[in-house]
Amino acid sequence: MKQQESLSRALSYAGCRDLPKPFNPSLGLFWIKAICLVKKKSGSEEYVISEQCASGIINHVCDCGTMSPIAAIVRIYPYMYLDEGILRSCSHANREFLCLTYPDKAGSILNADKDTLAIFKKQYAIDTQKNSVNGYQEFTERDAVQQAQDEIERKAQEQKRQEAVINGEVYNASQPEYQVMDVLDEGTVIIEEVQDISEPAPEKKRRGRRGK
């Protein structure tokens, strides 16, 4: 009964109708928010709401069960995965911009090595997605997998385009292109869709003999 009650509270908190799919590490996806089944020190298994930061640390932000302390995570059910498009855009953020965004960590950012700086950029992407006006209440495994497949297709189309240019050929992609998001000086994240505006070659005028 305690487990079912805590599940109902967790689903309500997360805004989910049903429990999402369990986390599958083999997919290589990074989750941000999840409903987690945990084992309490009392021995019971209950549900909590958890969030993961860029460094991989998991914080339990809402315990939907009893007051007993959490002993271990049993299973993770993510309902928000990291949008790779936002991650790519935020990778353009420089040290100065990150210092303005996280002033309390300015010293660490300025002295960070390449790998540590990448973690700060990833955290900026996570915070951007969580605070996005477009809303990412649910960015599920299905969304993330579809995005990964679209990115593979995009890269394949780009490879074909580059090969066509090298060979002096004309290549028209059937799919619309998406310009990589950018981070403006003011910290605004933008996404722009680039439509194919190439015009067909003009038809040649037919020549015929005039009647006498």
Fold and architecture overview:
By secondary structure, the protein is an alpha+beta fold. The protein has six helices and six strands; from the N terminus they run αββββαααααββ. The chain has helices at 2-14, 84-90, 95-101, 106-110, 114-130, 141-166; strands spanning 31-40, 45-52, 58-63, 70-81, 177-183, 189-194. It has a four-stranded antiparallel β-sheet. Strands 5-6 form a two-stranded antiparallel ribbon. Helix 2 (84-90) packs across helix 5 (114-130).
Chain-wise SSE layout:
Elements lengths: L1 H13 L16 E10 L4 E8 L5 E6 L6 E12 L2 H7 L4 H7 L4 H5 L3 H17 L10 H26 L10 E7 L5 E6 L18
Antiparallel strand pairs: 1-2, 1-4, 2-3, 5-6
Largest sheet: 4 strands, antiparallel
| Cα shape | flat
Q: What is the structural class?
A: alpha+beta
Q: Give the SSE string.
A: HEEEEHHHHHEE
Uncertain spans, ≥5 residues at pLDDT below 50?
Answer: 175-199
| Continuous helix count | 6
Q: State the end-to-end CA separation.
A: 99 Å
Radius of gyration: 24 Å
- Give the strand tally: 6
User: Average pLDDT value?
Assistant: 80
Helicity, in percent?
25-40%
